[in-house]
Queue: 4 jobs
Job 1
Amino acid sequence: MPNNLNSKNVVLLGAGPMAMDYAKVLKHLGVNFTVVGKSLKGTQEFQKQMGIPAISKGLIGWQKEKRCKADYAIVAVSCEALANTAIELMDMGIRKILIEKPAGLTAKQIKKVCVNSQKTESKVFVAYNRRFYASVKEAQKLIEKDGGIQSFNFEFTEWCDQVAKKLKESTTGENWFLANSSHVIDLAFFLGGKPKEFHSYTAGGNDWHPTATVFSGAGITHSGALFSYRANWDAPGRWGVEVLTRKRKYIF
């Protein structure tokens, strides 16, 4: 990856904490990149903390620059703007895009990104990065040696008090299950296989996620592995995935 990017131009959309993390990696890899944020305040704060200049006014501001060409794009904007930003980039001719999870705030938005990527023949990758952890890759090798997965379970607890603070000026809350919890769920089914059938139950709810705060369910994957899951956002806890084979238990 570093060798592929060293001779390319990358545009990083976003100037918040996630974009800062991407900038640190790109800088470490010696990649030529341009940061594009939305507000002047946000881009100034980015420059203050990172020592890297950032263009304000989003894609419109970037297009006004003389050097607004890019081979790759990284989309690290707010969840509300993920889908539209990715689609605009594709329409501008950028064909290789890494977009932060979950690529849209609703299933409809995500589908639009998918349809547009097919239409423009773009390669769009959603940043469910836990799939690529060294521990996960090693576990996959061992699981294959063990003869495959028999069962797995996972928990995607969220810390409501901390989440609420982040959502003061955001509409992401009511879609928080998709916006954040899907990280853990993706890892579980990436290892265990796609579900063939399952039954789910929910309860509770709060001001920013009224549909539910307690989740439970179970099912079976296409490969025959049994799975179960639970989460209680109203109680203490942490995320976790456990995978069981005939020989071992893998804990993430």
Note: The longest helix spans residues 176-192.
Job 2
Amino acid sequence: MIRILIADDEPRTREGIKRVLEGWLTESYHIAVADNGVQALELLRQQPVDVLISDIRMPGLTGLEVVEQLSTVEHKPHCIFISGYSEFAYAQQAIQLEAVDYLLKPLAKKEILAALHKALERRADKQAQEQMKKVTDIRLAELQQRASHPEINKALDYVRANLSEPISAKQLAGLLPMNANYFSQLFKEQIGISFSDYVTRQRMQLAKRLLLTTSLSIQEIAEQTGYQTDRYFIRVFRAHEQLSPAQFRKQR
């Protein structure tokens, strides 16, 4: 759902912007309104807002002051400022606050929609970045950079390409070929964790990506990540992430 807050002390402007957005938005949305800066700040602190469309000059707090006070808000909105004044200082401050756009009144429908489109693009980019952070095991990436032995690099490539299949250190040592005990010892020396821990972390990374980017069932994800039963997969996932797969998926 797209959550939008329109803050302006002029009722005609507020309702005009709201009607324009309601006629253009196609996906699920919620539009809230505020008639002053203090009310806008209260709403922003009470509930997440994706896009803030705010007048610069308002009673109580200006639109710029509202955004400046959002440092304590976890979910910061993408801001579009509107004003009846073309003062350079306002525009400069809006840029410093990373505003999506700065529009001058009277507002044209085309300008409002173009600014909203830019704001929603930024929102999509931010969501993609946040999802990438959730599914990427940074520690795993760092550990992989340590590998310098050619056979260990082959082992890493094999694991990444065969996560849906049963994988054991003994099996992989036989493919290289290499003594199983020596392979396990060399792997830990090179990577810093045991072979089984490495395989589990790779499987969990893949599982998180599938949970957030697909509609596959838990059982299907268990199969694609090399677990014979969804029950065992859930147990391993919970131990690794402190959340069940279903709880993790709700973070989308």
Note: Strands lie at 2-7, 29-34, 51-55, 78-83, 101-104.
Job 3
Amino acid sequence: MSTPVKKVPIHLQSSQNRLLLKHGKVVNAEGVKDADVYIEDGIIKELGKNLIIPGGTRILDVRGMYVMPGGIDPHTHLEADSVTGQKASDDFYQGTRAAIAGGTTMIMDFVIPEKEESLIEAYEKVRAAADPKVCCDYALHICVSQWSDKVQEEMEELCSDRGINSFKMHMAFKDLFQLSDSELYSAFSKCKDLGAVPMVHAENGDIIDENIKVLLDKGITGPEGHDLSRPEIVEAEAVNRACVIANQL
């Protein structure tokens, strides 16, 4: 027979899960105001002055400091492999540790499947790399770099079973990630059906590809060629085209 678990009275619980920030300047959507913040089990429970709190609560005097929500970085590429074979210098441990040091408490990274790789397999690969290392909350965007019935089915599974609600489509990187306009339309439509958020890398990949050929013929192979191959109008055209496609749905 198992022994019933006794609930420990709150005044005997470890003070490590209860924290009061006193005399700070709280910054939120309403503006800046002087207030105390009571936190329990990592959740903000009360905000105000002269709060009644449990005994044993750890108290920090943050007089003269700003108290604000942790930042969310919605676009990171930790441990990512580039199209040229280089790897990001920060892994999930180093990157998220640095994020926390700077006040960012959540990141959103990307799952970028290799050519012909399953979205689910790519997702599991990134989870296996990130889960043992991350120091803060994180979420994942899934890149859709090809279009098929299988991709649609996997998008459904990712949303229903794995909590994914954001998919990224590329309008550039020809022969690697770039989707056609009709595929973009279908991907947007699927996102709408799933209640997911579509996002795009908005550059005209066909024009960039032609510009690169011209620059290489001129002997321009340095980093300046990157900027020259994709003038602002190439991005503006793609942004407008993505909006036009989305507005058809």
Note: The chain has two domains: 10-67, 71-201.
Job 4
Amino acid sequence: MRTRTAKLLAGCVLCLIGTAANASAQAPAPGGATAPGSTGGSAAPGPTGGTTAGEPTSGGLYGPAGVYVGQSARFGGSFDGGSGATVSVEASGPGLTGWSAIATASADDHGAFSIRWRAPRIGHYLLRAQATSGGPALTGATVAYQPSLATWFGPRFSGEKTACGQAFTPALMGVAHRTLPCGTRVEIYYRGRAVTVPVVDRGPYTSASWDLTQAAAQALGFDGRDWIGALSPLPTTVRARVARHSRRHHHRHR
């Protein structure tokens, strides 16, 4: 009996070790690496839209539309006639006092430069770069998200009421969370795409932090169980500043 019990205990210990190893392997890679790929689960419908990261902003500064807080990301641009110029880059947003210097770089023979920067907190940031050669500043924006594990739920709940009192349909855009109040707006980022959706249900009742509805998963191209970026709630003051920045450059380039 003792031998059988010892074997069972040893087996349980090995199971626990294996589970811990799997959980560790699924965590986001440090030092600016992107989140790992999907780890399984039923496939969500294909993507239908979103925001692509890495494209030039209206203000000429290149960089990812979304980053994980604390992870390094590359930003850059090019100044006409800026060969060899010193470029100063500033950022404004959470954890910074006004416009704060974040990096300097030397432009190459073509006036191009790049820097790496880590956002200190989650939230929306504005960035600008100015060269000593003169000319208008290059501007851009990015969002720093909290990396979180997520899943999605779908067809088998069709027709049922969510914990927030809404009828679940395949078209319902939202997310489930264990504690955030119903209706809280949450910005979700996944592999270059972003959507802002309300909390519509409670859950998930697993190790994940978020449970996307079928429609939200479809909009993000989300598949099964994976790491996402989450931001909630978005501070009103920062939201207004980012909106003003977008409108200003939209009118300038019309």
Note: The radius of gyration is 22 Å.
